[in-house]
Amino acid sequence: MLLAVIDPSCEQSRKQCEEFVDKFITCSKDESLGTAMNRQFHKHQKTCQKKKKGGEDSCRFDFPRYPMRKTRILSRLDSTFSREDVKKYKAIHKQIVAATKDIASTDENCSFGEYLGKLRLTENDYILALRSNLRGHKVFYQRDLRERFLNVYNRDILSLWDANMDLQFILDPYATISYVNDYLTKSNVVASRLLRSLQEKFKKGDLDLMNKIRQIVNTFINNSDITAQEVCLHLLGMAMHRSSVAQVFINTSPFEKRVQLLKSESDLEVLHDIDPDSQDIFVRNLSCRYIQRPGILESVCLSDFAAMYTFPKKKSEKKQNEDRNSEEEVGFSENEEKKNTSTQYGDIAAQFNIER
Ligand SMILES: [Zn+2]
User: Fold this and answer.
1) Rounded to the nearest whole angstrom, what is the distance from the C-alpha of residue 142 to the centroid of ligand 1?
2) How far apart are CA 155 and CA 165, in angstroms?
3) Distances from the Cα of 113 to the Cα of 121, 140, 144, 275, angstroms
4) Of 343, 340, 341, 338, nearest to 356 (Cα)?
5) Residue 356 has what pLDDT?
6) Sign of torsion, CA 329 331 333 334?
7) 309 pLDDT exceeds 90?
8) Which of 166, 188, 190, 253 could bridge across to 151 with cysteines, CB 3.0–4.6 Å?
9) Which phi and psi (to 5°) does residue 169 adopt?
10) pTM for the whole structure
11) Tens of pLDDT along 6-15?
12) 36 C-alpha to ligand 1 centroid (Å)
């Protein structure tokens, strides 16, 4: 993989990159490299065939590749080309692909000029046709027709390596990220396929939402490969990552549009037993805590409040009720005791876990 930064709109930058590419990599057939050279030729396998939208089979590695007189970095056709022109060049591109695919091995030993002659195209039309099929920028390496199945290589490395290689000059940082990511997540391809078949199964069956989610989770967990390090962390119950920066969501929608989380069923049952008319049915969120903040925090704005204070986990209604009952039995209230023993600031710290 060769990576360089290019400004495609700058002719000089483009030229420098083309010279750089030619200096290090090539796809010209070099008989002196013997068997190593033969290994550089792509041979279609069952796995490299993919169906295109039109139903036609094509090679996922884009072989055969286009012959070129010299290495060039080409860009997609810009807006100066009319729709009709783009359509015309796209049609020519299709003819080029078909002709390059069907060419007999006896006819492949021709020069680039002869190849264009067979296609009945000028070099300019040929280049425009290739550009009509591009989404961004792409390097087209210098190659003859007989080299259309040859992978790009470095002469020095190939003679030492003695195995096949496919070197690429990368113009698009996004393409690099997606290339690396594809390799990292290669093992997840199986899981994706299984999840897709599960989706088909759901369409036919009548499982409820909870069971569907359960099946998806099980399929994903049981069919994803994980590294030995991940296994160790899971078994030891250790966190996969830590961060010194946390994110807090602050819902700033109008009050009536804020979504609130309903208390659990068991909590609501306990609440109903205590006070059947109670409207305290929502889990306390950041906004509630802000509204109910103590006087000492009156001047603190909502974002500072969210950033600077954390809250102790609240006991469930059931647990609170149990505590309440046991306190009644021994005859005192924890809150009362706290009021008597702690300072005003200590009280707030207990309620809001203020970081001092
Ligand atoms: Zn192939």
Assistant:
1) 20
2) 11
3) 10, 17, 10, 91
4) 343
5) 38
6) negative
7) no
8) 166
9) -95, 120
10) 0.54
11) 666 778 888 8
12) 19
Distance from the alpha carbon of residue 63 to the mean position of ligand 1, in angstroms: 6
> Cα–Cα distance between 20 and 73 in angstroms, integer?
12
Residues lining ion ligand 1 (Cβ < 5 A) are 44, 48, 59, 63
What is the per-residue pLDDT for 25? Answer: 93
Percent of the chain with pLDDT over 90: 25
Distance, CA of 170 to CA of 227 (rounded, Å): 29
Q: Which long-range contacts (CB under 8 A, 24 or more apart) does 1-5 make?
A: 1/167, 1/168, 1/170, 1/176, 1/179, 2/167, 2/168, 2/169, 2/170, 3/169, 3/170, 3/176, 4/169, 4/170
Distance 58 CA to ligand 1 centre (A): 8
Measure 42 CA to ligand 1 centroid, in angstroms: 7
- Torsion on CA atoms 313, 318, 324, 325, rounded to nearest 10: -150
Angle, CA of 197, 215 and 282, to the nearest 5°: 130
Strand, coil or helix: 296: helix
Of 238, 243, 246, 235, nearest to 306 (Cα)? 246
pLDDT per position as a tens digit, 262-283: 888 888 888 888 888 988 899 8
Average pLDDT, the chain: 81
Rg (CA), the chain: 34
Rounded to 5°, the CA angle 96-155-27 comes to 0
Calculate the CA 291 to chain-centre distance: 39
> In which band, very low, low, confident or very high, does the pLDDT at 331 lie, cut at 50, 70 and 90?
very low
**Residue 147 CA, ligand 1 centroid: distance in Å:** 14
Amino acid residing at 33: L
Locate the domains of the chain by residue range: 2-184, 188-236, 255-352
